[in-house]
UniProtKB/TrEMBL annotation:
Name this polypeptide is given: Transmembrane protein
Superkingdom of the organism of origin: Bacteria
Keywords per UniProt: Membrane, Transmembrane, Transmembrane helix
Transmembrane spans: 6-28, 49-69, 75-95, 121-138
């Protein structure tokens, strides 16, 4: 990749990675441990935070795709780009709607322990795949 495209791709990728790590693996689990935060309050906060994160991720994905596309990338850059973007699209199009339906039910008064959902586990597994892809992409873009 040319140096400008590589720099933009690397910066966008590592910013995206940092946001995912900070929100998904730090803020999300910690908010439910804060004193006075009930499950409905935590879900309300989480929905807003993840809506903002996902919007920022979509913008960064466009920036990274544009930088990669204009930089004559190798397969070592294209592959993790495709993986990260595909994971984001699956999260937004498949998993997030399920999580939203589940949180709607809990916010409407359903006992969260009654009907456990695996959607959260899928989201976390996809976040792990995305983190690996973003790290790989950032390193490959700047190599």
């Amino acid at each position: 990749m040319d140096s400008t495209s590589a720099a933009v791709a690397g910066a966008g990728t590592f910013l995206w990675l940092g946001m995912v790590l900070a929100i998904s693996f730090l803020e999300a689990p910690l908010k439910f441990r804060a004193p006075g935060v009930t499950i409905p309050i935590g879900l309300g906060i989480g929905r807003r935070v993840f809506r903002a994160l996902n919007l920022a991720e979509a913008v960064l994905a466009v920036v990274v795709i544009a930088a990669v596309a204009t930089g004559s990338p190798s397969a070592g850059v294209v592959t993790p780009t495709a993986v990260a973007v595909a994971v984001l699209l699956i999260q937004l199009g498949v998993v997030r709607p399920r999580l939203n339906r589940r949180s709607d039910a809990v916010l409407a008064g359903e006992d969260p322990a009654e009907h456990r959902s695996r959607a959260h586990l899928y989201y976390v597994a996809l976040e792990i795949v995305k983190v690996v892809a973003l790290f790989w992409l950032g390193c490959a873009a700047l190599a």
